[in-house]
Amino acid sequence: MAVLFGGQSPEHTVSRASAAGVLAHLDRARYEVRPVEITPAGRWLVYADGGATPGAACPAERPAGSPGGTLAEIAAALAGVDVVFPVLHGSAGEDGTVQGLLETIGLPYVGCGVAASAVGLDKAVTKAVLQACGLRIAPGVTLSPDRPAPDRAERARLGLPVFVKPARAGSSIGVSRVTDEADLPAAVARARAVDGTVLVEAAVPGREVDVGLLQHPDGEVVAGPPLEIVLPDGDFFDGAHKYASARPPFRVPAALDQVTTALLQERARQVFTALGGHGLMRVDFFVRPGEEPVVNEVNTMPGMTASSQYPQMWAAAGLSYRAVLDVLVATAWSAGRRR
């Protein structure tokens, strides 16, 4: 099995952290693991299996200045591999590009396919698809690269506060919470430094609750226990909370009644179906009593550190991290044989 990590997106470091979680929990009695780093420059470097630390062992020596990302280098990295686990976040990895490469060369891989990966990473396209399927989303405005800001009517409709996000990025990179309209241009510029297309979304008051989905080899899609992100009023789940906190602010299972839990799990499965998901997905909601849940965001390759939401949800369901990985690999292998 090749475990791909790193990548050419701003989430390179986040991917390395997720890959450390995967590498630490894969069963070495079942899998021969080959860590493969995609460097920020696009090179594919093969490492000895360093266990929990991606790239702990140095790759084979290469001549200085040798080209990276060539087809020959990629072919060498994947030679003899039966299945690939692309633990990649963000552009050039989670967006269907690597998935398309693996489809072309006929290698089974963990996670969503080309179309679901491409749509899932693009928040604007995701919102359009989900709205067309009757799912509730936050009011917002999409700013194409040639639009500097929402117009006056749009600003009045959205009100304050608003969240400003790059359309195609994750890990809260480039995201701002804006409470003063004077700060909006700077927030748009910050998001646009990450992606040319920017979303400006109305803040949705309510509890932030996530649901993880896991597909088994027989095709059954199971929703895990909802996880609530518990933060002080006015705060949001930014990069510091996600990656710098020793104790992420999670409550799992979330303190919800059975009806609300079942509704969230059903809506999460509907999102999975609408996007054509495969293998795994995490769907994030805003929840208010007596109202239809609002879909906030979708992650086709959620964070996979041991303390990330996705493994924590399944641990609360009684499924160990190792067991989750076994299901993901079996589902990928089964799908690959059916193509």
Q: Care to give the gist of this entry?
A:
This protein has 339 residues and is α+β, with helices and mostly antiparallel strands.
Can you put this structure into words, describing what you see?
The protein has 339 residues and is an alpha+beta fold. The chain has three domains: 2-109, Rossmann fold; 119-136 and 205-338, ATP-grasp fold, B domain (D-amino Acid Aminotransferase, Chain A, domain 1); 140-202, ATP-grasp fold, A domain (Dna Ligase, domain 1, 2-Layer Sandwich). It has eleven helices and 14 strands. The protein has helices at residues 12-25, 71-78, 97-105, 114-121, 123-132, 152-158, 184-192, 239-244, 258-275, 309-316, 321-338, and strands at residues 2-6, 34-38, 44-46, 84-86, 140-143, 162-166, 176-178, 198-202, 207-215, 221-223, 227-229, 250-251, 280-287, 294-299. Strands 9, 10, 11, 12, 13 and 14 form a six-stranded antiparallel β-sheet that branches. The radius of gyration is 20 Å and the shape is globular. The relative contact order is 0.15. The model is unreliable at 61-65 (pLDDT under 50).
